[in-house]
Amino acid sequence: MKSVIVTDKAPAAIGPYSQAIETDTLIFISGQLPVDPKTGQMAPPEVKAQTEAVLRNILGIMAARGLPLDNIIKTTVYMTDLGQFQAMNEVYAKYFHKHPPARATVEVKALPKGALVEIEAIAEKQL
Fold first, then answer.
1. Which one in 15, 70, 71, 84 has a CA-CA gap of 20 to 30 Å to 25?
2. Distances in Å between the alpha carbon of 82 and those of 32, 48, 49, 101, 107?
3. How far does the chain reach from its first CA to its final CA, in angstroms?
4. pLDDT of the residue at 127
5. pLDDT tens digit string along 83-121?
6. Contact yes or no for 26/122 (Cβ under 8 A)
7. DSSP E strands: which ranges in the chain?
8. What CATH number is associated with residue 29?
9. CA 44 → CA 36, 60, 76, 84, distances in Å?
10. How would you write 35-69 as a 3-class SS string?
């Protein structure tokens, strides 16, 4: 059985997809952009600021189900410039300092809304 997670603690979907989908054991969080859920505005065009905004949105989705970030088991980070990997990684490490999830990071030509960073995640409901 699956259910849709909808929260105002993360930006609304900008297309035909859900913020997240929940199954009996897992949560699949769609790629989050650096958009402020309250204002709809993009974070400043700087990798650290955008990574921070993206991770706050993921945190908001996890909080909607009462779960900590520690329950995230896999992320995929999409960046438009891997030359900025270290800057992204510094912010990422602040959120995932204890037992970080498995991760892939890939460079892409472009992201929606001109974002520099997008992150999707898979979380386990109980560890």
1. 15
2. 18, 13, 16, 20, 6
3. 20
4. 67
5. 999 999 999 999 998 899 999 999 999 999 999 999 999
6. yes
7. 3-5, 20-22, 26-32, 72-79, 102-107, 117-124
8. 3.30.1330.40
9. 11, 20, 22, 15
10. ECCCCCCECCCCHHHHHHHHHHHHHHHHHHCCCCH
Burial (0-12, 13-18, 19+ Cβ within 10 Å), 72 = buried
What lies within 8 Å, CB to CB, of 97 at 6+ separation is none
**In total, how many domains does the chain have?**
1
- The DSSP letter of residue 9 is T
User: Comparing C-alpha atoms, which of 33, 16, 48, 43 is closest to residue 111?
Assistant: 33
Q: Could you list the residue range(s) of the whole structural domain that residue 27 is in?
A: 3-124
Residue (of 92, 97, 94) closest to 119 by Cα position: 92
Please give the average per-residue pLDDT across 61-90, as a whole number. 97
> CA-CA distance, 76 to 70, in Å (whole number)?
16
